[in-house]
Amino acid sequence: MATRVYQCLKEIGDKIMANKDFLTDLDREIGDADHGVNMARGFAAVVEKVPEDEGDIGAALKKTGMTLLSTVGGASGPLYGTAYMEAAKVFAGKTAVSPEDFKAALEAAIAGIQKRGKAVKGEKTMLDALMPAYDAFSEKVDAGADLNEALDAACAAAAEGVEYTKTIAATKGRASYLGQRSVGHQDPGATSATLTLETIRDFLKG
Ligand code: ADP
Ligand code: MG
Ligand code: MG
């Protein structure tokens, strides 16, 4: 399946822009009220830096990661930056998305986030959306599902993961300064990760 990676990145940027205030408000509750601003700044730069006619998905993702690393401050910049750079390696030289590659890319992205941020599941971070999404995605793919079906399962699991973040206390990132007082609030990074997956799913469905 041929895909236009620039268009997909642009749609992720549009989604983040549309949810900029929402993400920032979530971060106001348990952080420093900048997650939407950070991500919007990052993706505004991404759509400027990634060539519109880029056919190589890996090259576009690498550019995305590098741009996020250099333009987004805070925790989320290096973490998302690393995630896209790791996913880029899987898609190097590729112009289409297979379920197997998507699975490998998600796995690599998560490993990169964990290497960089030292968080595990259950610490109220973006990993609480991404790790269940990966589990659901691979279960579907391993059972022979197509990309759309697997992405639907991944998005449902990510959304459940966001709900789960409301029930736990943060032990990583700024929200951890609040300790138990972070319970009851939804994690901004898990929310932006879910919005990202949903946009990719909708884009690939075309
Ligand atoms: P900052 O907290 O530096 O202001 P952002 O507000 O942009 O950065 O991003 C906050 C989000 O980053 C959190 O909601 C959480 O999901 C994620 N995050 C923070 N620390 C980590 C970590 N160590 N591992 C994974 N995700 C993290
Ligand atoms: Mg913040
Ligand atoms: Mg900040």
Q: Which fold name corresponds to the CATH topology?
A: Serine Threonine Protein Phosphatase 5, Tetratricopeptide repeat
How far the N terminus sits from the C terminus, by CA atoms, comes to 11 Å
Number of domains: 1
The major β-sheet equals:
none
Instruction: Give the ligands present.
Output: adenosine-5'-diphosphate, magnesium ion
Radius of gyration: 16 Å
Which structural class best describes the helix and strand composition? mainly alpha
Kindly report the name of the CATH homologous superfamily: DhaL domain
Number of strands: 0
Q: What pattern of helices and strands is seen along the backbone?
A: HHHHHHHHH
Shape: globular
Mean pLDDT: 97
CATH class: Mainly Alpha
Q: What CATH architecture would you give?
A: Alpha Horseshoe
Write a structural description.
The protein has 206 residues and is mainly α. The chain has a single domain (5-205), classed as DhaL domain (Serine Threonine Protein Phosphatase 5, Tetratricopeptide repeat), CATH 1.25.40.340. 69% of the residues lie in helices and 0% in strands. It is built from nine helices and no strands. The protein has helices spanning 5-18, 20-30, 35-49, 57-71, 76-90, 99-117, 127-142, 147-165, 188-205. Helix 1 packs across helix 2, helix 5 (76-90) packs antiparallel against helix 6 and helix 7 runs antiparallel to helix 8 (147-165). The longest helix has 19 residues, at 99-117. The chain is globular, with a radius of gyration of 16 Å. The site of one magnesium ion (MG) has 7 residues, from loops. Its EC number is 2.7.1.121. It catalyses: dihydroxyacetone + phosphoenolpyruvate = dihydroxyacetone phosphate + pyruvate.
